Every structure is written in structure tokens, then in C-alpha cells.
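Thanks for the sequence, V.! I ran Nucleotide pyrophosphohydrolase right away. Repeating your input here for the record:
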Amino acid sequence: MTSMEKITQFREERNWRQFHNEKDLALSISLEAAELLELFQWKTSEEARKNPERLKEELADVLIYSYMMADNLGFDIDEIIAEKLVKNAVKYPVEKSKDSKQKYNELSQ
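Predicted structure:
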């Protein structure tokens, strides 16, 4: 069973789809991302990584809500990620972006 199938089964068993409109899912993604970010607040990355269980839980929440939103919109997760990676490859060509943290519009022309 795929992750999407497990998520769908979980929410269908509870009849929660009725509460999962796109606006509320977008809000939930943002809120869960903030909870993930909070684990890093006032810490170095190394310090935050000392609590892997909480990191996994918060990251899973972000992903679950993201998967539900994609499902609601009829988006295939693998397809939309592949499409975005193609766009990113154009914006960040290897020869200009390798070893650089600059944003695409700041890369040397």
C-alpha cells in the first residue's frame, strides 16, 4: 500500500475528508511547518537533530497534509515533483549553480 493509499484509508475511515478543503489543508501545512521550524528555534542544526522523533513527527504532519491536498486537487505527487525538478533545472543549471547558494536570479549570467 502506498503512502497516499494509507493516508486516504486513514481519513476515509474517520470520514474526515469533509473537513479537508484546500484552504484548511494549506493552513494546516503552514502550521505544521511552523511546528517543525520551532524545533530549530534558538538551536543549531546539530542541536535540533538531537530530537529525531519530534523531527520525524512534525515532518510527517507536513507531508501528510501535503499529500491530502495533492489528492484533493487530483495531482500525482511523483508527477508534480518531476515537473518542478525540470523547471528548477532550467532555473539552476549545474554549470552556474554548483556549489552556490545564490538564488536563480542572482547567478552570474
